[in-house]
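Whether sequence alone determines local backbone shape is best considered at the level of individual chains. When preparing material for the folding task, we compiled for one chain both its residues and its backbone structure tokens. The sequence in question and its structure tokens are set out directly beneath this paragraph.
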Amino acid sequence: MSGRIWVGLFFLIFGFGFLLHQADIIDMSQVLSTWWPLILIIIGIIQLINRTLSCTVSGFLFLLVGVLFFINQWFDLHLIFYLWPLIFIFIGFVIILTRAKSGKTKHTSDKLSTFLLFSGAEIKSQSKNFQGGSVVTIMGGVEIDLRDAVIAEGAMLDFTSILGGISIIVSENVQVEISGIPILGGWEDSTRKYGESEEVVVLKLNCLTILGGLEIRN
């Protein structure tokens, strides 16, 4: 399931929850006070599914915090007092065991699927048949370099940016077609414009920006 669908489900669930609360069918405040750690656990699982280094680290961190809060909520074991020491221990192990990587992360698969939460990434696609994919950033940023990718016919990228930023670099022969919904956000297309007689490769971008931004350039 793509990150864009997860974001949509999140808004749907909370929207229906507050709607039922207004209709006096459920007590949303009580539900949230009891089950809110599951939100952190779900975020952690989504991050782990993405399988990039930054997402794996933040995924384990969200999962750890969510599980601790959930256990403490149900069994009253006062685990909250151990939360910060465990977080510092976890970060320490990550710093010691993780090897630093320079440059952009190389991506060779035909479809791109990226979900970033409170983190950033630089992705350089070298796909020989790039078909698009899905990119979601929430309070994070990503730079996607498609200059070495071979854009397939009908390729489409879905972007969702919430309090985040996305930057895309395409080759000179790529024409970008943008559609979407900006909500207190927007996008900027700085790529070269082509005439009808010129042969170009078309890349379609479907964007949803909420207090976020998207930049496309050559």
Summary: Residues 43 and 62 are 7 Å apart (CA to CA).
